[in-house]
């Protein structure tokens, strides 16, 4: 029995000792957590209940050259209610007046909002949704309402702000305006001007402390941010929205007519290099067109006959030929090795001068000129082209500029055919904007300026940075050569034999060059051949103000594919309308231009607008720019809302014009 008692006692001591050791271990751990690891666990607890959130700043506005908005940040506000922080007295006193104010502001019944507020109070909801996506004026009205005017703690007001980027021009210039996006890993995607000028537009982020509440939701702590965000600067681009609208609709109409795959138009100011319009339209599977890719800057392709200008300048500079040099185009076919160079005119042009060879766009004449003139020293030819800078990128801030291709003798792909092929725009590659930069240099008496999309960066009325003209090459060739090719470019349009004569107008002058490039030409199946139609030039021909290039890819061959037919009319339409709506001409000249070319002016409205109308015409469905020109020529003040084509006119067709002073046009 005694043995048994001693055994039990021994066990009790063991158990008691273990308990003491366990208690000691617990005490040690508590002390360790409290003192040694206290800061670590406190920080962990804080991160689970409180967290610092980033506040995105308002992105700066992107403007056109006249201050019209191309892209802007619009703040949207969501209002929530913390039903726990409000005292019983304040809630009972203000719940109905608050519901009445919300109902008056947003159109729902007072009982609807009372139900939301009372239910939130009953369920102790700290994050009840009241209303979302408010603009600034509605947000300010909510802040002044009963109860909410007491702020975050006493009034339970929770405000969430988000910024949305909007484009007032809609789909016009959408790709050129572009965007800047950042993913969860911090990687940026930059497109167009928004991406190029992001460093100015994006601003500096702020910080806001939030507390975790029920259901994984986060509520802002206090009324103030820890670090206030700094809004981005405003950027003023070179884009002219009137010219942009003209270019967009001229291109769209031609793409639809020829059911082409895609196309681009660029309009640039000759002296400064300011890009006034840049439109890029691609076809969807449904046959509609939208700003799909930035073809003007990013798509490098064989330019075809528009490259003949580069070759003519090179040959004149190297004294290979003169404009009066006669070359035999034979019967429009010339064989070099096993390859036939062909002209589009059956039977050829016979013996013609080099100036006429350019005007009629003879492939045979140019292939002979470059091949015969440089075959003993092909390096001299390529060096001349490089001296003019056609092998270089323009160095634009916009991401994705296509690289020009200019092979050197000995490079992979160079062959005995290369000189002849390069003579009429094959085995070389350039983007439309790179080609336009060369034509612009000729219009600018030989000075090549860098195309420019940015004019100024501002913070309110303060100029942060200003961007001026940048010269890439002060003289791509001699003044003598410039004058010669300027006259020849003018002849392309004015002379009856010129490939661009179909564009001729006696009322305003143009100069330029057509281009028709064959693609898929390696295929033996001619039915698979596709074409790129282009026209590059400038206007007016004698004192150039603007240069312009139009490139249209893969038009329906059954409708047409030559540059003069497909791209030429777009160039002419742009030149005509820009010429008529800008200070290039006198008032009398404008009238002449608008009357001209009746078939290209929306069913003769321009011509009719000059007649003494007695009644209001119907302008519905017309391009906004055309409708404005017509109505203003009738002496009517025009107010325009929106962009695109006319959807509604405030004065109906047939109204006596004597009683009309102003009309409002709604565009879509």
Automatic annotation (TrEMBL):
It holds the Pfam family Transpeptidase. Its main location: membrane. It comes from the Bacteria. It comes from Maribacter dokdonensis. GO terms for cellular component: plasma membrane. The lineage of its organism: Bacteria, Pseudomonadati, Bacteroidota, Flavobacteriia, Flavobacteriales. Residues 610-668 form the PASTA domain. SUPFAM superfamilies: beta-lactamase/transpeptidase-like, Penicillin binding protein dimerisation domain, Penicillin-binding protein 2x (pbp-2x), c-terminal domain. It is found in: Membrane. InterPro entries: Beta-lactam/transpept, Beta-lactam/transpept-like, PASTA_dom, PBP_dimer, PBP_dimer_sf, PCN-bd_Tpept. Keywords: Carboxypeptidase, Cell cycle, Cell division, Hydrolase, Membrane, Protease, Transmembrane, Transmembrane helix. GO terms for molecular function: carboxypeptidase activity; penicillin binding. This is Cell division protein FtsI (Penicillin-binding protein 3). GO terms for biological process: cell division; cell wall organization. The keyword Cell cycle applies. The chain crosses the membrane at residues 12-31.
């Amino acid at each position: 029995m005694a043995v048994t008692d001693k055994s039990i006692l021994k066990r009790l001591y063991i158990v008691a000792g273990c308990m003491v050791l366990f208690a000691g271990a617990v005490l040690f751990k508590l002390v360790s957590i409290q003192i040694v690891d206290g800061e670590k666990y406190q920080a962990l607890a804080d991160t689970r209940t409180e967290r610092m959130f980033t506040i995105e700043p308002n992105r700066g506005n992107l403007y056109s050259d006249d201050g019209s908005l191309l892209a802007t940040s619009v703040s949207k506000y969501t209002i929530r209610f913390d039903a726990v922080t409000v005292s019983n007295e304040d809630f009972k006193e203000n719940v109905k007046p608050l519901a009445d104010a919300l109902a008056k502001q947003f159109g729902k019944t007072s009982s609807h909002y009372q139900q939301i507020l009372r239910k939130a109070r009953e369920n102790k909801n700290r994050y009840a949704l009241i209303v979302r996506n408010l603009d600034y004026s509605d947000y300010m009205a909510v802040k002044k309402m009963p109860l909410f005017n007491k702020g975050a703690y006493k009034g339970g007001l929770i405000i969430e702000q988000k910024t949305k980027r909007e484009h007032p021009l809609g789909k016009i210039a959408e790709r050129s305006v572009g965007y800047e996006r950042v993913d969860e890993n911090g990687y940026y995607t930059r497109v167009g001007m928004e991406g190029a000028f992001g460093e100015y537009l994006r601003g500096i982020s702020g910080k806001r402390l939030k507390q975790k509440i029920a259901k994984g939701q986060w509520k802002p702590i206090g009324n103030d941010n820890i670090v206030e965000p700094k809004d981005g600067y405003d950027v003023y681009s070179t884009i002219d929205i009137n010219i942009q609208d003209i270019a967009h609709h001229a291109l769209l109409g031609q793409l639809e007519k020829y059911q082409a795959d895609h196309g681009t138009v660029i309009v640039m100011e000759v002296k400064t290099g300011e890009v006034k319009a840049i439109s890029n339209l691609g076809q969807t599977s449904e046959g509609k067109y939208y700003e799909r890719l930035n073809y003007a800057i990013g798509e490098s392709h064989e330019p075809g006959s528009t490259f003949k200008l580069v070759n003519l300048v090179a040959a004149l500079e190297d004294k290979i030929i003169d404009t009066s040099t006669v070359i035999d185009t034979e019967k429009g076919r010339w064989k070099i090795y096993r390859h036939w160079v062909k002209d589009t005119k059956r039977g050829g042009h016979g013996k013609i001068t080099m100036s006429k060879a350019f005007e009629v766009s003879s492939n045979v004449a140019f292939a002979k000129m470059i091949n015969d003139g440089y075959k003993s020293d092909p390096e001299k030819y390529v060096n001349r082209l490089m001296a003019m800078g056609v092998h270089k990128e323009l160095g634009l801030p916009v991401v994705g500029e296509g690289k020009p291709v200019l092979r050197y003798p000995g490079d992979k792909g160079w062959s005995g055919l290369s000189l002849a092929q390069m003579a009429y725009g094959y085995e070389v590659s350039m983007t439309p904007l790179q080609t336009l930069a060369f034509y612009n240099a000729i219009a600018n008496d030989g000075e090549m300026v860098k195309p420019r999309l940015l004019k100024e960066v501002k913070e309110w009325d303060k100029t942060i940075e200003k961007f001026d003209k940048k010269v890439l090459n002060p003289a791509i060739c001699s003044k003598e050569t410039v004058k010669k090719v300027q006259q020849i470019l003018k002849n392309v349009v004015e002379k009856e034999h010129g490939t661009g004569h179909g564009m001729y107008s006696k009322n305003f002058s143009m100069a330029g060059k057509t281009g028709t490039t064959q693609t898929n030409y390696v295929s033996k199946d001619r039915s698979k051949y596709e074409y790129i139609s282009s026209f590059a030039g400038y206007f007016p021909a004698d004192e150039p103000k603007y240069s312009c290039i139009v490139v249209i890819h893969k038009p329906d061959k059954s409708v047409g594919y030559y540059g003069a037919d497909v791209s030429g009319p777009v160039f002419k339409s742009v030149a005509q309308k820009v010429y008529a709506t800008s200070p290039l001409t006198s008032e009398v000249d404008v009238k002449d231009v608008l009357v001209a070319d009746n078939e290209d002016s929306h069913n003769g409205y321009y011509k009719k607008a000059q007649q003494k109308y007695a009644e209001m015409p119907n302008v519905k469905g017309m391009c906004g720019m055309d409708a404005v020109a017509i109505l203003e020529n009738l002496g009517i003040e025009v107010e325009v809302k929106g962009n695109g084509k006319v959807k509604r006119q405030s004065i109906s067709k047939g109204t006596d014009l004597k009683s009309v002073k102003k009309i409002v046009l709604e565009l879509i």
